[in-house]
Design a protein that fits this description.
With about 140 residues, the chain is mostly beta strands. It is about 10% helix and about 55% strand. Strands 1, 2, 3, 4, 5, 6, 7, 8, 9, 10 and 11 form an 11-stranded antiparallel beta sheet that branches.
Length: about 140
């Protein structure tokens, strides 16, 4: 049986502890209404200050100083097709620190039903905008 070096054993248990969760405020603007977000390496939760807007929960992948986060909704259309609406958030991080800003894009696509599956009928380009995150604290 091979022995695990003590340092490797310690690293196995310390890895989850190194992933930090940040809670930040999002200043008010006309697009997202401001609010708060909680983010770590694999998830982003955004809660808007607008009461009519549901919280957004996204899965994320972090690579270096950028996290790419996404949520998507798929729905059927009246004529048997499909519509896809996605929200994509790119989070920019500081070196060894909290997130600095988020760029969001919201592409959508409509698919029509065909004999052998679905074909893209219309694509609506995503307009991107960037907003800051402020007053970040770590848990």
């Amino acid at each position: 049986m091979k022995l695990i070096p003590p340092l490797a054993f310690l690293a196995l248990f310390a890895s989850p502890a190194l992933a930090q969760t940040w809670t930040c405020l999002v200043p008010y603007d006309e697009v997202n209404g401001g609010g708060s977000l909680t983010i770590n390496d694999d998830r982003l939760d955004f809660v808007s200050n607008w009461p009519h807007r549901k919280p957004e929960i996204m899965n994320c992948i972090r690579s270096g100083l950028t996290s790419e986060c996404m949520s998507a909704q798929l729905a059927t259309t009246r004529d048997g097709g499909l519509s896809l609406f996605a929200k994509l958030y790119s989070v920019t991080w500081q070196d060894d620190g909290p997130p600095m800003s988020i760029t969001t894009r919201q592409p959508s696509v409509i698919f029509k039903d065909h004999e052998d599956g679905y074909a893209m009928s219309e694509a609506f380009p995503a307009i991107a905008y960037t907003f800051p995150v402020i007053d970040c604290t770590t848990d």
